Amino acid sequence: MIIVTNPGNPYGLALLTAGKFAKKPVKVEQIGNNDAQLKPPKHLPLVRLQSGQEIFGIEASLRYLLGESVEHSLKEQELTEWLLTHFIPILNQLVLSGNRRDASQATKLAGFTKKLDDLLKEGDFLSGNSPSTPDFILWSHLAVEGALKEVSTAENLCKWHKNFSSRSEAQEALSDFKDLNFLSLQNSNRFGALAPSTAPSSSIDESPTADVISAEEIASAREGFTFQDIPQAKEARTVLPKAGERNILITSALPYEICDKYFEIHNSIYRWFGIGFDYFGRTTTPEQTQIVQQMFHELFEAGFVETESVAQLLCQKCQRYLADRFVEGVCPHPGCGYEDARGDQCDSCGKLVNATELIKPRCKLCNTTPVVRDSSQFFINLPKIEPKLREWFASVESGWTHNARVITKSWLREGLRSRCITRDLKWGIPVPKPGFESKVFYVWFDAPIGYVSITSKYTKEWRQWWQPNDDVNVALYQFMAKDNVPFHSVMFPATLLGINKGYTLVSHIMATEYLNYEDGKFSKSRGIGVFGNDAQGQDSSFSWNDLEARNNSELLNNLGNFINRALVFCEKNFGAIIPQMVLQEEDFVLLAQTNREFREYVACMEKAKMRDGIKHILAISRHGNQFMQVTQPWVLLKGTDDQKARAGTVIGLDPRVKMWLKPGHKIGKPEPLFVKIEQGRIEELKKKYAGQQQVASGQAPPKVSEALPKLSLKDLEEAIVKQGEKVRQLKATAEKAIWQPEVEKLLTLKKQLAELTGQPVAPAKDKKKKK
């Protein structure tokens, strides 16, 4: 794992030292505060895992590195937040202020120092019998030049610092970190500690930071703060687009074979996750049949449909023509050779495949070899529509993910070909043309039209979404895996452009990469991986260790702690009733911070940048945690009536950051949102979802490169030329994770050529350095 930090940041030193103490393989990457790789919300330091995922927030990062449990750490957690919000900000200001030091701040630091000194009378460390989160935070800040001088009168604290500094891990970390200073901390840590409001402005670095809250933001928070009842459930209503507003229509690709069983499985999974739809539909409806057939007629009349005789695969044993997904074989594209390519597409090279072109085809149902039979089919004339499609694509591609743009451009670069849109199958929508009554429409002509027909099931006014007036702006967002991109970026738009009846075209395609499981691929057929009806979370690269880290550090320690501590405090001290609130200036600062994070969250979601959006939600909970620690309502409750009332405001305000609760509302029994995932449980889950075939055989699936077919000398030379060109193009446009497998295929082809000719593989030529 990598610790990413700006130079001189004490928190970076704390993370590196903790990593060395925990014997973790950590490296340090130092970057500038405005480095392009630092994605919003900007935060340093952070821990970047091997999977590419990032953990931000000093407390969460330290807990991950140290593997600390949550149950024992309530005292430790309070001490950590006290250091972050009280001790370190004042230490920071006094060291930076030099001769302009504030006497009241120096007195306050002396009191804080005594508290730490007394704490260290009880043991060798601040919390427990070994170094923990607060030890690393305090030590790293006392390592800044001039900091130790501020606490030199504390005998126990200085002894602790000397012992900690003498350890080899601390010395190694210090040798990697030079020029520690508090300016680096102030300029980098957006979610750092809240400075006490009494701090003199002259003692704080005046360079602009993201945490500065403007007077306008505070005024807006003050104006927008109102007491509201909890929103009541409203009767279902039909949502229609409005003129003069930006209207968003969201769809996602679902398989055409949906039957009652899988429809309910999918629906129940969405309900489990709390995902709601205005209407959750399917394509096996009369509306789908009517609209598909109508669109086909309009496309036919516009002159974009033609008839050709094509060869199809017939399984004589099953006595049926095979749908594309029911036939598999070796990919025919040069340089690929993937053994499990399907009859419509190869999952390895991503290219479309005609089923009859597969090498060694086999029926997926009975595993026998099918025979070829000729049949007349309808084709959509994509070359004829291509000029319109290119013009449209150029106008919208900026709203697509990178992989969606790359896949679509590769199709257009090679030139479009007519695509068959009918099949000799029994399942599907009948083709409404004489002589074609026994045929049905191909799934990827039929299925995308389901977005239209499902909307028609939702409302009779569906044309307001799909054929809007000129003064109505409808933005169509579509989410899918990357293998479905061509059908949504080429096939479906080409159909609508060919019809030319003002249909809404997709404006944003959000395509994910293949979902990897640990070091391999998900596979339902092999029982490898976790699926929607198995577990609670997935990512583009699923790892059980990453899940453990995310759950325990970000969800449990950050978000879960924020929600649970306020509600439990309310239950125990206010009879579970949200108290009355009289807000002060610092309260509106918190609300302004929350409003800012929420605005940025919405901006991220508008661009479908969900990970960045989640970071802003986690930032809100961190602001809330720090606010509660600074105000210390548990101390206020022991004071005067005014202080008790202030504690009520703090506790009442804190839940309102999370939920719109009115004073006087009685909450239920608080329960933790998240539980810690122990390493033992992780090992159990790894075994459970490792897959039946691999467990039984003890062998991993063959690499794609090992499945490349043996070609003739001429075919090998042609394949090497094509694969080399593919590698060059990918290296110029894509990330290493995408082009590296293609390089391996190229090397395998060259090895085959060497074996065939008896000549060694030519070494790669060294690039000459420019003088």
UniProtKB/TrEMBL annotation:
Reaction catalysed by this enzyme: tRNA(Met) + L-methionine + ATP = L-methionyl-tRNA(Met) + AMP + diphosphate
Domain of life of the organism encoding this protein: Eukaryota
Chief location category: cytoplasm
GO biological process per UniProt: methionyl-tRNA aminoacylation
Gene Ontology cellular component terms for the protein in this record: aminoacyl-tRNA synthetase multienzyme complex; cytosol
Listed PROSITE patterns: WHEP_TRS_2
A GO MF label: ATP binding
Keyword terms: Aminoacyl-tRNA synthetase, ATP-binding, Cytoplasm, Ligase, Nucleotide-binding, Protein biosynthesis, RNA-binding
UniProt-listed Enzyme Commission number(s): 6.1.1.10
Protein localization: Cytoplasm
NCBIfam families: metG (TIGR00398)
Annotated family: Belongs to the class-I aminoacyl-tRNA synthetase family.
PANTHER family hit by this protein: METHIONINE--TRNA LIGASE (PTHR45765), METHIONINE--TRNA LIGASE, CYTOPLASMIC (PTHR45765:SF1)
Name used for this protein in its record: Methionine--tRNA ligase, cytoplasmic
The species this protein was found in: Phlebotomus papatasi (Sandfly)
